Amino acid sequence: MMSIKRRRSAADDFDSFFEDLRSEVEEWRNKLVERPSWNLKASTIEPLSDLIVAPTEVVVTVDLPFTRESTLQVKAVGEDALEVSAKMKRKMTFKDMGMIHQVGEFQKFHFLSRIPVPVQMKKMKIRFKKGILEVHLPRKSGHFEGRT
Fold this sequence. Notes:
alpha+beta
């Protein structure tokens, strides 16, 4: 006996299209909207970072100059985010960075990044050398086309 598949209505397709579009626009807006890379209340500054999605792993690189290695903390936030924090060897001010129109000082780096594909957080490998943090996260097998 042949099964009958219910076709999606045009309204369902229309709703799905606009929901996907809204999601994409929100993601781009979050990437493009300029926000401060510091938090004066917490005395933290966001370090430079890079995220590479390779076929078998995700590699997150974070620049942490003047970091006390003993204070470095790298932890998974759920299944799709990574948080890095570390105390600096010395305080930095806006003036140190050549900015004279701002006042404040920083004592700690703080970085939070969403990982765009499914990874195995429990198999995270960390390397810290000369102020550069490298975090290797193996991708979950069978998830090579993005999040499912």
